[in-house]
Records
---
Amino acid sequence: MHVFVTGGSGLTGPAVVAELIAAGHTVTGLARSDAAAARLESLGATPHPGSLDDLDSLRAGAEAADGVLHMAFGGDFGDPGDMMRRDRTAIETLGRVLAHSGKPFVSTSGTLVMPAGRESTERDEPDTAGLAAFRIAGERACLDFAGQGVRASVVRLAPSVHGPGDYGFLGMLVGTARKTGKSAYVGDGANRWPAVHRLDSAALFRLALEAAPAGSVLHGAAENVPFRSIAETIGRGLDLPVVSLTPDEAAGHYASPFMATVYGFDAPVSSAFTRELLGWSPTGPDLLDDIQHGDYL
């Protein structure tokens, strides 16, 4: 299969591109810079100049492909409405090219769209008033194409897609601990943090492209880890005190009030349906093991 990938040079994208190529697929990757193009070429993919805002480039990439994997997402987190509009417009542009073709179209969301306080399944509805509600419009835009002759599916990734060189939520958490001299959690730290190793997420994206039925919602989460355990593991590794923060204290401790809310959020998810549907079986190190023995510390 010839796959057009957006976000292939980002944090998770290179592992996905490598997984696809290792499985015998060819990859063309959207590249908005020379550095991104070089990264894609080093993985064996063909760079395709453009960005999420270059709709002509998106159309051309999709037209030449047998399937599309959309992972790119960006903008100013201070303006989630703008990020939502950019993402939805890109998805609609890609999907229209694939309409009535039967080709696969996999888009990316996050498990933080799910309601807080209970373990959610793939069949549960996302929380339209929740922390990551700005991702829901993109989910729906992609899944709408399942009724237009596209094998459309959505992969919701855990907030921690961990592995070497991680500069996402977990990498920022370790950086904050180093900067402040303490490893913190919010309240009692019992809130559960979904996590998946980067290589396991790459395998899931490949399986979704190859076999996910139209309209599938998939959860890329291997485990749910109590946040206090994460903070304690970081504290031991850096030889720092581990402390509890009130929500008000957390707003000043972390990089922003939004990040404080994220780190205190309790939204565990199940991936049982995903595993059964696609035969996905995560085999990478778990989150706490990766913190201890990976490159985080």
---
Amino acid sequence: MQKRVISGIQPSGELTLGNYLGALRRWVSMQDHYENYFCIVDLHAITEPQDPQELRRRVRDIAAFYLAAGLDTRRSVIFIQSHIRAHSELGWILNCMTPMGWLERMTQFKDKAAKGGRERISVGVFDYPVLMAADILIYQAHLVPVGDDQRQHVELTRDIAIRFNNRFGETFTIPEAFIGDTGARIMSLADPTQKMSKSTEDPNGTITLLDPPDLVRRKIMRAKTDSGSEACFDPTRPGITNLLEIYSTLTGLSRSQTEDHFAGHGYGDVKRELADLVIAALEPLQREHHRYIDDLAALDHELQSGSDRATAIAERTLRDVQEKVGVR
């Protein structure tokens, strides 16, 4: 039996090159090896204020990119989180099993509380990891492809699953975080100490998947680099390391092969070649994305089909959990 994989992207902004390299391309390569469930986690997006119409647009936009990147609905189940009510229902039950102390230790909550104040952020921000646990456990997933910054959330999911299993008997598969060797954390071009983010305040640091070629080139040529001139991977020089990481991930070259390729070349050469590479990678992706967006009826049909398939698995797990806790 193939191991089951679950992952998703939040529609909180325009998809970035980091999303493509860290998630979409990895998912596509996994399709022949695992049983795959890939969702658009719109319930997580509303932990922060959202414009409803814009949120709906972004959900479809991300779905179109899933398909444009090469996810095949014959080999992967693609669906929208909020269309599967079992996610929220299981989330509530898991809330009742999860100590507040576990959530108070979560890094993302502590960071947001420090920036915005605990009194101002929503309960959803605090409780986000439990809903994420429900997203994973409802499908009895074995593996969760995530960026390194999400590792803590998968660890919490494991703790919740073990706690539930110890109390009610074997119920949930205990998942593992699946983090790639390269491309798992693409950093901002403007501040390479920060992750390239959909919700960044500095658009120059982020390449979105719909950026036109001239804008892609301008952002890369203006990317922040470090003192020195040698193009090599060095944790003390995050700027050039990030550019080389992007190059390595797109080409499939190892780090040493990437360094050999740029031996004797300056930062300007790295940026020029990287810009050409990124533009070439985005062109077919953008073309396919536009094709799916131009036929929203067909896109919605694919999403409904995915929801139907996901519901069948999710409802089975939910019924088992409900019976064990006594609410069915």
